[in-house]
Amino acid sequence: MNDAIQPATGRLGILSVGLGAVATTFITGTLMARKGLAKPVGSFTQFGKMRVGRGDAKRYLPVGEIVPMASLNDIVFGAWDVFKDNAYESAKFCKVLKDSDIEPVRTELEAIVPMKACFDADYAHNLMDARFGRVPDPVWAMADDTRWNWAQNLRSDIRRFKKENHCDRVIVFWIASTEAYTPRNEMVHGTLAGFEAAMKADDRKHLAPSMIYAYAALMEGCPFIMGAPNVCVDIPAMFELSAKQGLPIVGKDFKSGQTMMKTAMAPIFATRLLGVEGWFSTNILGNRDGQVIEHPDNFETKRISKASSIEWILDAEQQPDLYSGISHEIKINYYKPRGDNKESWDNIDIFGWMGYPMQIKVNFLCRDSILAAPICLDLALFTDLALRAGLCGVQEWLSFYVKKPMTYDDGAPVHDLFQQFAMLKNEIRLLGGYEADQELD
Description:
Structural class: alpha/beta
Radius of gyration: 21 Å
Order of helices and strands: EHHEEHEHHEHEHHHEHEHEHHHEEEHEH
Strand content: 15-25%
Shape: globular
Strand order of the largest sheet: 5-4-1-6-7-8-13
């Protein structure tokens, strides 16, 4: 292993912004796995094996034997949320997991009591709408204060959590709702100084709550992971702050269901040089994320995240005869009876030899939080690895896990799932002291 990487000793705190379906599924599964009562299926850090070396030196090793990974036994969970429910109560309410998969870790889950959240209803319009279910009264949130004071309160929360739980390192992870779309504003988002001035001026129009969490985390020496499509750490002010603090930032939006399928299927067409005329995608889901995305402002944030993958993989500039003018349509509908069991449909109109048309239909009946939970675990552990390795700024090697990979402003994101997997493995090889030997086009 690479001696330059700090060892994965001590306790690793994972502070989740949000304690809903995804977060409680992630937490419960991790607690069950470390008791030997469940298997963390889908997690590359836990199940993955990969090649290092070539020729006679070739070996296939588990990830944890290549790079020093934190143990599940060393993880401590905490959270902020707008609902008072502890992790046990929330897991029961979300109805993702069976009681038999929750009760064995009930005591640990009940001990995870959320801190008051920073909440602005203008960024999550439907979250408090009684049409979609219960509404807390009062909202479990910090006082309606300035963005600057919010940041100071969050920083105090992080320090207190770290001290009370004897954590050596803390990762802050947005696992909450999709916020209303926030266009980039150069005066506010272009520099750290402008961002801090806007917080002090309580600029609510340009500063979403997630941005305040990211700022507070980075100021407290904690890497920040954006698990939703929010405009948040993908702005120059956060690039500047992460570099100043020497901390990794990761994002954005979990690549769990439909987009995972898209970024696996689109490379087939690009590789076999089949044309694509249109790609129609629709979803129904009835969890809290679906509830929030039902509002047009929040849907726009999600739409942008889901739309970007096809256009990058199927390059119209390189292949104008095959991919110019693709009709790419995306719909998401809230449908309460489905709960967390999301269903997606894709209709893909392709054409082949001499322009003859064909169609592909994909119907994916997935479980949203079940697919997202191992992504959460891997992102947390790999981000901790990046922290201990001294990596800072945007972690493009973790694009494998996200719908809309972050890059610096002039960089072209990699969306192809298989290219992303090669990037991930190459970085692990480098961090483990091996050659990064998978070439990317």
